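Note to self: keep these together.
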Amino acid sequence: MAQERDELLDHNYDGILEYDNPLPRWWLWLFYITIAIGVIYLPYYLLGFGPSSAEMYRQEQADAVQAHPQLAAAAPGAAMPGMAPGAAGDHGHAAMPSFADPSMVGNPAAIAAGKEVFELNCMPCHGEQGQGIIGPNLTDTYWLHGNRFEDIVSTITNGVPDKGMIAWRATLNPEKINQVSAFVMSILGSNPPNPKPPQGQPVPN
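Structure:
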């Protein structure tokens, strides 16, 4: 590799001289590579030539179902095998997953356990008291996916990928999903401070 030399330009500013040295080759090659990557990335991901992030997410879900069918069967969802016939229930509500346990509603032990699950997993998006931050307010009468116990279990189980909520069936077992659903039911109408504005449609409790 040729040794670089300091070269002065043939001008100065108030006695200040300026060097005219080329950039290191490694820096130039790195710059050219980033341009090439950008030329490929822009049309592939942003102009529709390649899969979108939502499409890749759905494909990963399908791959997970094929790789672990026993888990899919244990935590059925709206787009997965195992959901009871008539996946869309009355009034647009989701059909009840086979492991939903409404007996946990109002159960103090289940609510206490669900609060721990909520604080560990749900609080960053829904707030410490369910008032909503990134995710919606869980304490008012406005709901995006239904406010019945089975609706909440289904939403937690399957997630809302289009809104950025993951399918918690991969992280939480059915018991914990039921417990945190019972906790969400327990905070309806609690009116915490600084609630997020209503989202969805009003649904009477």
